[in-house]
Amino acid sequence: MTDFRAEHRAIDWASGEIGARIRRRNRAQLRLRLVGMAAIGFAFAMLATLVGSLLWTGTRAFRQTHVAIEVHYDAGILNPDNLQRGNYRAILGATMQALFPDLPDSALRKATAILSNGAQFMVRDRIVADPALLGQRISLRVPVSDPYDQLHKGLIDRETPEEFRRLKDDEIALWDRLEAAGAVSAPLNWGLITNADSRFPELAGLRGALMGSFWALLTCFVLSFPIGIGAAIYLEEFAPKNRTSDFIEVNINNLAAVPSVVFGLLGLAVFLNWLGLPRSAPFVGGMVLALMTLPTIIIATRAALKAVPPSIREAALGLGASRQQVVFHHVLPLAMPGILTGTIIGLAQALGETAPLLLIGMNAFVTAAPGSPFDPSTALPTQIFIWADSPERGFVSRTSAAILVLLMFLVAMNALAIYLRNRFERKW
Amino acid sequence: MNRAAAPVTPAVLATVKIQARGVQVFYGAAHALKDVSIDILDRTVTAFIGPSGCGKSTFLRCLNRMNDTIEIARVEGTILLDGQDIHDSGVDPVQLRARVGMVFQKPNPFPKSIYDNVAYGPRIHGLARNKAELDAVVERSLRRAALWNEVKDRLASPGTGLSGGQQQRLCIARAVATSPEVLLMDEPCSALDPIATAQVEELIDELRSQFSVVIVTHSMQQAARVSQKTAFFHLGHLVEYGDTEQIFTIPRDPRTESYISGKIG
Ligand SMILES: Nc1ncnc2c1ncn2[C@@H]1O[C@H](COP(=O)(O)OP(=O)(O)O)[C@@H](O)[C@H]1O
Ligand SMILES: [Mg+2]
């Protein structure tokens, strides 16, 4: 044994050299913290800008300007045997004439143009539903057309020279008379979620897109959840660990990194051209999204299965449970929260995915919400794509509003995933 | 292993439960257990002692074929349970594990209720025809594990909420619920405090009246306290096997002697 005491050297911890070293170390740590805080601050600023600008433009679409009119179902104009095909334009013309009795016939067209193009159909639908209205007068609130909606929301500047303005002085004068008469209101725009798409922004809504996304996600879930869990259980619990399973594992990880547009092309080539499935159908969209979601679910499930401690498997095996019983009685239930979390995150990704849906034609202009997964339809992200591309001013705020709706769903799904993870997290 | 010279005790007269002959275990290329032959007696507590890594757990896992679940493990040799080869094609390893129960080093109750923990084995093997029978099995097993009085009012609460010692007794109750003939215990007290250890040791002594108990322990005092037979393993060899008293007082092999006297391990 060597004598360690002989080698012992006293260290002067109070020396200047050591003090300088400590100060240097503290400064380096402070710098790192400042850089980190700056990075986080920057990220938050970007997020706030994004959400702020969406809210700024999007909230305008949450209200829609309406005007109250009194409709006279004139028995002289309408044929009681064919109410469906009556001349409702004439009825609206008469209505506007009553509102502006001093207006010459030539200017009446302009007055009627204040009302949305859909107003005649609303007037028609009321009497078709209740034929007893023939000959009666009813009060109705109908949406106004896009330029007047913009005007009411202050998005058309009255100071702009007339030749550069969408609404001329006489049109604005008509509007001001309506407003002065107290006929104008701007209630919450439920049409944004209850209407399907339309050429006219004041009538366009997300119902078709919401239903399309719903059917597509349902298809995606029904396909990818059982297949993904089955594949993961087999790979994790039953497959022999050899070159083949390594190869499969690597390729599943690769699959998760494939750009989504490639899955769209695959869907186009296989599902539409080869199998002849219908274009624009949420069912096909869901199948393509399932291809994308599968690797996510497989990877999340395998991670969740791996996280179940071996002691639980040993306990069950030691009691004489078969491999299958061990998996289905013990491992899978314990892994379920992790699996669900991964699945929800995968579905949230699928909900926001645009490119593959564009390729299989889910950006079609469809004015009816799909009744089944096989009807043509859009989805939320493709609807945003379509609206963002539309020239009418009213679609600008509707695009932002649609993005807000999509973000709301994404946030809700991620929140659910986080809740599940925290609620069922186990400490071993 | 010169058993003829050992003093004749009642334990020696007991019947042989397990006969192992020439057992070898390989983990991949590593030769973990080398030519082990041993007769384990019925209604006897047999202790496996030896330094860490000498193959005690490995041999224990041979007895209920738990090594089958380790992919790289390969077992050679014959092991007879009541005269029948457990590697026979007619023996289902899954059913064997109901006959040869196991208790692990770290208490590992299922994250289910106390009742469900104990009832799991009888359920999967169809040992109870109805709820009343199952209730009876659960109560009997918990009584055998000396846990009934502590948990009888909260059978529905989770088994993971019990103290460490209670959890280990729950694991013992769970293992005895399938009415095994042999109970294998791998260092069952190493995660327990001294009081819980004493309770489990007392329990082991009682279990001896019904089962053949094999216990791996790193504590020689524990081996001396609970076992009638002791086997000393060293570097994958079974060095010496005999009556516990003899092993601890007049060991024949110099390796046993140095281990007992604290020079190796
Ligand atoms: N699952 C395994 N895979 C590979 N080697 C193992 C495994 N289990 C045990 N071994 C090896 O076998 C030898 C005996 O281990 P073990 O039986 O656990 O010893 P003990 O229980 O006596 O401490 C050790 O060298 C150990 O490293
Ligand atoms: Mg061990």
Strand content of chain B: 25-35%
The helix/strand series of chain B, from N terminus to C terminus, equals: HEEEHEEHEHHHHEHEHEEHH
Q: Report, as a whole number of angstroms, the end-to-end distance of chain A.
A: 45 Å
How does the helix and strand content of chain B classify structurally?
Answer: alpha/beta
Number of helices of chain B: 11
CATH topology of the domain at 10-107 and 183-260 in chain B: Rossmann fold
Which fold name fills CATH's third level, the topology of the largest domain in chain A? MetI-like fold
Biggest chain pair contact, residues each? Answer: A-B, 19 and 25 residues
Q: What separation lies between the terminal Cα atoms of chain B?
A: 21 Å
Can you give the mean pLDDT of chain B?
89
Per CATH, the superfamily of the domain at 10-107 and 183-260 in chain B is: P-loop containing nucleotide triphosphate hydrolases
Q: Quaternary status of these chains? A: heterodimer
Give me the secondary-structure topology.
The complex is a heterodimer of chains A (428) and B (265).
Chain A: H1 4-7, H2 16-58, E1 66-72, H3 88-99, H4 105-112, H5 119-129, E2 137-143, H6 146-152, H7 169-180, E3 184-185, H8 191-194, H9 207-238, H10 243-256, H11 260-274, H12 282-306, H13 310-318, H14 323-352, H15 355-359, H16 380-388, H17 394-424
Helix pairs in contact in A: 2-17, 3-4, 3-5, 9-12, 9-14, 9-16, 10-12, 11-12, 12-14, 13-14, 14-17, 16-17
Chain B: H1 10-13, E1 16-27, E2 30-41, E3 45-49, H2 56-63, E4 73-81, E5 84-85, H3 93-99, E6 100-103, H4 114-125, H5 131-144, H6 148-151, H7 164-176, E7 182-186, H8 194-207, E8 212-216, H9 220-226, E9 229-234, E10 237-243, H10 244-249, H11 254-260
Helix pairs in contact in B: 4-5, 4-7, 5-7, 7-8
